[in-house]
């Protein structure tokens, strides 16, 4: 065992049950901790590893490419960067200008800076999670932010609140920044927000950091016919290597020409090599379709096990990214704890995401582990409690910071 005093403290993760797990290796959709216990990963490394950990094809191609490619260059402008930019532009033809950064949070903050410089206005109206940077850790994502930013206002997916904010900040709003949550909200919500953005003359900004490279080929906006001014992407671009993108229209990205967006480590050529190789594999192996096929099997496995065990639960969302809702937060936390005890790596609330390595061996290991977890959960928890609208509202409020009205107005989608 490692000396606890020698382990860096990460309060956000270590205050939860999963924090006691210290991993030392991973392969595909499984990981091993320092005590030799094997876990089945339901998170796809928080969405960063759509091919699965330690993917042999990706690693071999990256190793071969790096025999000839430099690790770092004097300038962020490189041949590999230009090649990857062309691939992103092909993926998002309505957003032909791209700017690369390192993380999803970097991309979302850069999008805000670009929008403000393009419009000359300070206010951002937002819904959904956009990362850990101060400007997004405002209410309701932080109960008592030490730096309260009145220029970032969260409408919590509620169109009435958004309309009020647009009215109260008339002439001051740079953009509306929206994170799609297919579990909770229908595409019509974003389509209506797009209409409101055009009506009020503000930029439409869509955070596809999590969903953009797995929800559908071309992402959420393209799938549902929404033309955003700015789109952020990250998870899955470079198979776990830190790389993110702001993609925008030529008009919106004029703001990037006026803003300082310097980033020393964009000189790391390896990230762009990894990005190009990942996108090549996505095309060759039709990864988005595979994620959907495997995700559908994953949903079915959980649904069948819940029904067989007589446990009330709802599985909501798309095949490639979904949520499991239990009758209450207490039930949900107990379920996640039992899963962890039996080697299923998840949390509550938590996003379940397939990866391309989930094969027959993975599913044959998942079934008995899940049955043991559910048997223990069933012994300890009240099985008379049912999933109600209140259960869904409570989950969406915790996971997405959505208002009750926003949840219930989308009941036609999740019910």
Write up this protein.
Helix content is 41%, strand content 14%. The chain is α/β, with parallel strands linked by helices and 415 residues long. The chain has two domains: 149 residues, Aspartate Aminotransferase, domain 1 (Alpha-Beta Complex); 216 residues, 3-Layer(aba) Sandwich (Aspartate Aminotransferase, domain 2), CATH 3.40.640.10. The strands form three sheets. A seven-stranded mixed beta sheet has the order 4-10-9-8-7-5-6, with helices on both faces. β11 and β12 form a beta hairpin. α3 packs parallel to α9 and α11 crosses α12. The radius of gyration is 21 Å and the shape is globular. The N and C termini lie far apart (47 Å). The relative contact order is 0.15. The N terminus is likely disordered.
Radius of gyration: 21 Å
Helix content: 40-55%
Overall tally of domains = 2
| Average residue pLDDT | 93
Proportion of β residues? 5-15%
State the shape.
globular
CATH superfamily of the largest domain: Type I PLP-dependent aspartate aminotransferase-like (Major domain)
State the secondary-structure class.
alpha/beta
CATH-assigned fold name of the largest domain: Aspartate Aminotransferase, domain 2
Q: Termini, distance in Å?
A: 47 Å
- What is the number of E strands? 14
Largest sheet data? 7 strands, mixed
CATH-level-2 architecture of the largest domain: 3-Layer(aba) Sandwich
Strand order of the largest sheet: 4-10-9-8-7-5-6
Question: What layout of secondary structure does this protein have?
Answer:
Blueprint lengths: L10 H4 L8 E5 L2 E4 L4 E4 L14 H10 L13 H13 L5 E5 L2 H16 L3 E5 L24 E3 L4 H10 L4 E6 L8 H14 L2 E5 L11 H5 L6 E4 L10 E5 L5 H5 L10 H16 L2 H23 L4 E4 L3 E5 L3 H13 L2 E2 L5 E3 L6 H21 L8 H12 L3 H6 L1 H4 L1
Parallel strand pairs: 3-13, 5-6, 5-7, 7-8, 8-9
Antiparallel strand pairs: 1-2, 2-3, 4-10, 9-10, 11-12, 12-14
Helix pairs in contact: 2-9, 3-9, 10-12, 11-12
């Amino acid at each position: 065992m490692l000396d606890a005093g020698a382990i860096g403290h990460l309060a956000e993760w270590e205050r939860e049950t999963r924090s006691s797990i210290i991993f030392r290796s991973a392969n595909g959709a499984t990981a091993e901790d320092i005590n030799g216990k094997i876990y089945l990963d339901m998170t796809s490394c928080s969405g960063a590893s759509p091919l699965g950990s330690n993917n042999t094809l990706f690693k071999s191609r990256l190793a071969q490419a790096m025999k000839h490619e430099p690790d770092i260059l004097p300038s962020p402008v490189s041949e590999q960067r230009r090649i990857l930019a062309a691939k992103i532009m092909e993926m998002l033809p309505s957003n032909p200008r791209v700017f690369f950064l390192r993380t999803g949070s970097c991309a979302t903050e850069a999008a805000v800076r670009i929008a403000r410089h393009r419009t000359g206005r300070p206010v951002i109206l937002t819904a959904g999670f956009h990362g850990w940077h101060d400007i997004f850790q405002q209410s309701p994502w932080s109960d008592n932010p030490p730096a309260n930013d009145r220029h970032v206002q969260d409408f919590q997916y509620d169109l009435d609140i958004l309309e009020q904010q647009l009215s109260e900040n008339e002439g001051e709003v740079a953009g509306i920044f929206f994170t799609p949550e297919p579990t909770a909200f229908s595409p019509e919500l974003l389509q209506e927000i797009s209409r409101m953005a055009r009506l009020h003359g503000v930029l439409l900004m869509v955070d596809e950091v999590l969903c953009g490279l797995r929800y559908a080929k071309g992402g959420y906006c393209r799938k549902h016919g929404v033309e955003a001014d700015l789109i952020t992407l990250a998870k899955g671009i470079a198979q776990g290597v830190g790389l993110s993108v702001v993609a925008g229209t030529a008009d919106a990205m004029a703001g990037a020409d006026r803003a300082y967006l310097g980033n020393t480590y964009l000189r790391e050529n390896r990230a762009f090599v990894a990005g190009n190789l990942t996108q090549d594999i996505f095309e060759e192996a039709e990864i988005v379709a595979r994620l959907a096929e495997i995700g559908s099997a994953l949903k079915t496995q959980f649904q069948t096990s819940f029904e067989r065990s007589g446990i009330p639960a709802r599985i909501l969302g798309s095949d490639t990214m979904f949520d499991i809702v239990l009758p209450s937060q207490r039930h949900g936390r107990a379920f996640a704890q039992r899963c962890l005890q039996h080697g299923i790596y998840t949390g509550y609330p938590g996003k379940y995401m397939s990866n391309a390595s989930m094969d027959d061996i993975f599913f044959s290991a998942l079934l008995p582990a899940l049955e043991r977890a559910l048997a223990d959960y069933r012994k300890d928890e009240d099985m008379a409690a049912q999933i109600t609208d209140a259960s869904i509202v409570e989950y969406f409020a915790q996971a997405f910071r959505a208002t009750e009205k926003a949840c219930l107005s989308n009941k036609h989608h999740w019910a």
